[in-house]
């Protein structure tokens, strides 16, 4: 790459590691899992309050509820999320006498969306059986349209919107730069624009994700600390001649961790959804034993694809060995801050025109 | 396996060979392709005559047409089939002044169905872009339900229904036995039962497939001749000690090639569809140069999975080498009979209640 070349470091899509091997997302997604349960429980009340079963767009003639998970990866988190929504919809039916009878005829069409290079083969092979529930995979970036107009009743996405559609050309090599922020805002705008077309009027969109408490600088968060260590390892192995220094310097993760107020602003900017619920919450880590090894595993599950694309397969193992070594020097209390990073739970409702 | 054990030889599903390598279905499906074009052209008039755009089940409010290809494999044939149907639907809109205006807002939801061990990753990576068209993959056997009730407008399947859901326990080792016929009829019944639930009243089901002209014995057809040679090779390599004789003798393809009248009877037995068109046609081979090598390639594309499951990976290459050798002794005229085997084109319409 030419010096000063404005090309983004990565323009392709970034699926989680596929399959179910040791480094797969399927086996390294426990951190996301803890947050998912907590956030979904939070969102349950908002779904119950806002799901209008008498909305004519709810296809009550055919009794089909169409649900999509955007950025599903390969499970098991996506299966849990979808099951939680289905259970909540059923509960909503039971709450009202005049529609309770329809419950037995209700069928769910469930769509699992992710980039076309996601490992859908593994997703499909591990799909849990669920009565009255029919599954489909939907390939394509959720920053554009992936469904016909007015075809979904409930959308869901978790821990996806901090993944940028591209790394901006400027400020490469720096994490959470102003250019990253600009890309994040543009991505959210595109995401909501596409979903507003796809959801029926009155349809709900549940958005869970990672954020930083207002006033806390990124560099002082658990994620900021660990990412800094990781980027330092890149420079180390570049100096050892294993990867090019140019490549090490121009790498940044295609990610932006927004402050809660930035998420709020981005959501409120769109006029086609009303915000029915928006909360900043703490991740529920009770059942996750956060330690050095877990962080390395999570990084492998999340970034293996991005790193292989940028540095080549052979360098990535060296990089992770170095990372594991450096990370042990980081106090466990700092590591545990990763677990205390904040999350947001949002329930949007598509306006009735 | 115990002698006389009534277990079927194969009970699992049989996807075509995945990927796009030399032995993949994607690169060895030209025989199916020739037939597809001919049959789809035949079916066009029946679609145009029977697609009722004023049918309230056609979701004209949202202008979504939902199309599914059952047993899609990995392309490119499935992409051609779907494109043909989309083009025909658009043509239908243009034929009527009062709905012509809706055409620009029309969106298509296209579903590609196949067994969950089909190579959907390859399918998704090779999906052609098609404006106003949104794609999804649907894993699961089409001999059961794979969609919610009343959720599809047009279904399509080509060259799939001669694949049985299982090889019947009796008559194993013989092709096209009475037990195979019984399984075929049961499979068709299950297929139509499931589709009748999934299609909206007035919805169309296009069924293309392979058959034998009435009165011609299977053993005298091109397929019968070549299959006999193949089964002979199995016995040969069993005698050479490469596979067990027991296994060679108990193998039969999970297939049944019906006479045209058997297809007709099976279709007419179901009371939830009316038969709008049913024709026996000749395969259009103009563009396919049928020769010994092509037949071996087609067999590899179709049966590699089944054979590996029954005999193990290592025996299959030996088997195909033997098959290629034996096949050269078969006169080219007999081989070419494969090309003159017959096909059927059927258009069914889901009854209004």
Write a brief structural summary.
The structure is a homodimer of 353-residue chains. Chain A is built from 11 helices and 7 strands. Chain A is an alpha/beta fold and 353 residues long.
Q: State the helix count of chain A.
A: 11
Biggest contact:
A-B, 31 and 30 residues
Domain count of chain A, please report it: 1
Total DSSP E strands of chain A: 7
CATH A-level architecture of chain A: 3-Layer(aba) Sandwich
User: Globular, elongated, flat, extended or rod-shaped: what is the shape of chain A?
Assistant: elongated
The radius of gyration of chain A is 21 Å
Summed over residues and divided by their number, the pLDDT of chain A gives a mean of: 85
Which strand-content bin applies to the residues of chain A?
15-25%
Helix fraction of chain A by DSSP (H/I, runs of at least 4): 40-55%
User: What's the CATH class of chain A, please?
Assistant: Alpha Beta
Structural class of chain A: alpha/beta
How are the strands of the largest sheet of chain A arranged? 3-2-1-4-5-7-6
Q: Could you name the ranges of chain A where pLDDT drops below 50 across 5 or more consecutive residues?
A: 1-12
Largest sheet of chain A at a glance?
7 strands, mixed
CATH topology of chain A: Rossmann fold
